[in-house]
Amino acid sequence: xxxxxxxxxxxxxxxxxxxxxxxxxxxxxxxxxxxxxxxxxxxxxxxxxxxxxxxxxxxxxxxxxxxxxxxxxxxxxxxxxxxxxxxxxxxxxxxxxxxxxxxxxxxxxxxxxxxxxxxxxxxxxxxxxxxxxxxxxxxxxxxxxxxxxxxxxxxxxxxxxxxxxxxxxxxxxxxxxxxxxxxxxxxxxxxxxxxxxxxxxxxxxxxxxxxxxxxxxxxxxxxxxxxxxxxxxxxxxxxxxxxxxxxxxxxxxxxxxxxxxxxxxxxxxxxxxxxxxxxxxxxxxxxxxxxxxxxxxxxxxxxxxxxxxxxxxxxxxxxxxxxxxxxxxxxxxxxxxxxxxxxxxxxxxxxxxxxxxxxxxxxxxxxxxxxxxxxxxxxxxxxxxxxxxxxxxxx
Length: 395
What we know:
Blueprint: E1 2-4, H1 11-21, E2 53-58, E3 64-68, E4 80-85, H2 88-102, H3 108-117, H4 130-138, E5 146-148, E6 151-152, E7 160-161, E8 168-170, H5 180-193, H6 199-213, H7 218-223, H8 230-237, H9 240-246, H10 255-281, E9 286-288, E10 294-297, E11 301-308, E12 310-312, E13 318-323, E14 332-338, E15 345-352, E16 360-363, H11 369-372, E17 375-376, H12 380-386, E18 390-392
Parallel strand pairs: 11-14
Antiparallel strand pairs: 1-18, 2-3, 2-4, 5-8, 6-7, 9-10, 10-11, 12-13, 13-16, 14-15, 15-17
Helix pairs in contact: 2-5, 3-4
């Protein structure tokens, strides 16, 4: 007999429970081996289908019963959920994205700017970014293929990405929105572009911008053809300011602060999207709430995601400020603390609203067990919270 065993408390209690034990062996119930079979090849996560697609509810005979809206789930065990092409205007937008990239040579950033200027929004109701356009251009679901098991998550272990040979595939699982030849042409362009440039080649291209414009900005880098993104320069050289110094350019004094703000603004939606995607990978239902940084998970609890800038006191001590999203009524706040250079994530705090009454928290390197008990190196514990787990027991 199969039974669903759920955590008896709310999400806040679960986070508190995990924080105080810090991934020590779980109790007897949690030590039961969990059974996670591969999802059926033609079935989809309950939420998160993507722009230009919709979820169709079908019965056990494969007969369509209706299109599911955001947040709606099947209520009959024998029913199934499959993807179908979405509204005609969204399908046209998807085909236009591919045509613009493959035929007209537009970059992801240019395509995103055009879509936003036309008032088109993503399936989450947000503005398009370079990253969201790139996701459309690289996701096989737009040619009707369902690819599952891209990542693995085991109890008390980190979320890991599986190599392609371990993916579970179902080609032609539903009607595609774009032609396979167009999709594969886009992959070829992306692969050719991803050739790793040497430091010297990247700096030579950066110097070319300086010679033409007399200055360098992140926007100029992102707008240049055949040039890596500003994020690539930050990753390679630590920061844009460091890359600028390599070519003899000194930006205005306040550019460092402005650069960090720009990095946070561009990275935050990517972090929110990454959290949402990882939740879907473990089978959770995810919807974007009214506030853009709040996710509604499994129609059970709300999660706020924030990035916390690093700064130094006059004495050189590290500090971070976490603003709790009280307006968004989040049950859990994921606060990602940035590293000292503010160019990457150092660690995460999973803060349940039931335990944190203050609207603002000021953190140092060490904060005592009352706060550091909620600190994690990654978000695997949080993804386990949202995961539906089936365990077997003889009755």
